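Re: the request from the purification team.
They wanted to know what the chain is likely to look like in 3D before they choose a buffer screen. I agreed to run a prediction and write the result into the notebook, where they can find it.
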Amino acid sequence: MQQPSATKIAFASFIGTAIEFYDFYIYAMASALVIGQVFFPESDPAVQTLNAFLTFGLAFIARPFGALLFGHFGDRVGRKTTLAASLLVMGISTLLIGLLPGYDAWGFWAPLILCVLRFGQGVGLGGEWGGAALLATEHAPKGKRGWFGMFPQLGPSVGFLLATLSFLGLSVFLTDAQFKSWGWRLPFILSALLVAVGLYVRFKLAETPAFAKALAEQATHAVPMKQLLKTHLKPVLLGAMAMVVCYNLFYTAAVFCLSYGTNTLNIPRQDLLLMLCVAVVFMAVATPISAWLSDRFGRRPVLLVSGICAVLLGFTMHPLMADASIVSITVFLSLALFLMGATFAPMGAYLPEQFPVAVRYTGAGLAYQLGGILGASFAPSISQWLAISGGLPWVGYYVSAMALISVLAVSVMRETAHT
């Protein structure tokens, strides 16, 4: 069978993560802006926000289950079919969230079903990233795995930009009452069209050469998870800790700062969304630069330098955010997302390189998603609690502590760029 071109491989690995992260991010933004009011209206505003953030965190608990489920089939059946299935699960869950009536109509059942669908989003996304990274890196020429692994890492930037622009457009053209009543649902419903495009692109691809060879040589495992835990538990745990900084930077900037800025600093919603649009451009710029540097100088040096910068960034949070200056907040958000891109891009190659082909989907995906539990699942709610209890400086200290965990993990991981 003729191998697909580099352009097709890059686009297919990019488009799926862009769509799935768009679906994931629109919920993140909705949780900061409206989910609490629609599904938890009987609480006071602060508790509404906290409840919304807890439903946000639920998907991160689900993501490792998705990594194990789809990883099992990805390491036994193949990358291509498994990736299509994960995209479909995510798309159906997102569409149903957009159609779900609120508490006023369905009472207790509305938030309960919301939690189930949010769990479904997490399962779908849990199976997406590992497969997309393998789709890119297992087709990559020698010496360019970092560059090819960058394309699934670029997907979240574009997905986030699309999500932010969609909510920005709604904020501009709808009243607050219209936005709360039905406007917030539109990005969830429209995601169905994006999922259809992603499925079409995915089904056009062939299986990756590395997995096709393993399948032909009968070198796969009946239960990949069993073999993974038996022989590769250490890289799973270290990889998870290495991912913490990426997750924490992103969700602090995209969710906590959005909520804090609108609810505490009283900055108009559209202004903060516009600031995030500017900031995500810095994330998108950092991603290819960091990936290229990781091929040139190695994964570990790039991750260590950017991780140390993230440790220092936490101490700037209060000075840059506290005075509600649009310029200084934009600077903080831009720095946070730039460093997120810098720490995130090399992981598209670095995590898969820690595992052999037969357990690579399960291993890379599980490490990635466990990192989400540690770094992101309750980051907005922890940050909200810290802001209420001790003030904004403590949120910055939390960011620094999470970054330090990743620096320590990477410092003991092996270099894989030239293997």
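For the purification team: The longest helix spans residues 45-76.
Please add any questions underneath this entry.
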